[in-house]
Amino acid sequence: MDDDASDGEHELLSPSLPIVFTRSLSGHTPLLKLSTLKAIARRRNKTTAQVILRWGLQRGTSVLPRSLHPDRIKTNFDILCWSLSEEDWNEVNSLDSQLRPVGSRNNLFSLNGPLQAVEEIDDLDLNCD
């Protein structure tokens, strides 16, 4: 990356971490099954995945949720409508670090995927009220 790019464009690097990954070479519990995250989700009437995505967004990292299911895509956008409380934030931050195996089939990348820019999703009805 060149912070002094003359054309005004900058690159953003975002590592991949599938939250639905169920196997861990490190022996850690999968993210979606962590009792702390599940408890926060229950208290907030959200899914565990939403809690994980919101935490990533709230900490200022790029969050790139992926789904082929319209209902899950809409649920993923809901993370823009709420924030973790300070208590929830501290609980998530107190969790042990998670490790992800490298070199699995989950690292494959396709340039022909179904992802769209938010403004291109014409049927998105984001109601944050």
TrEMBL record:
Annotated SUPFAM superfamilies: NAD(P)-linked oxidoreductase
Domain NADP-dependent oxidoreductase intervals: 32-96
GO molecular function: oxidoreductase activity, acting on the CH-OH group of donors, NAD or NADP as acceptor
PROSITE patterns per UniProt: ALDOKETO_REDUCTASE_3
Keywords assigned by UniProt, alphabetized: NADP, Oxidoreductase
Protein family according to the UniProt entry: Belongs to the aldo/keto reductase family.
Protein name, as recorded: NADP-dependent oxidoreductase domain-containing protein
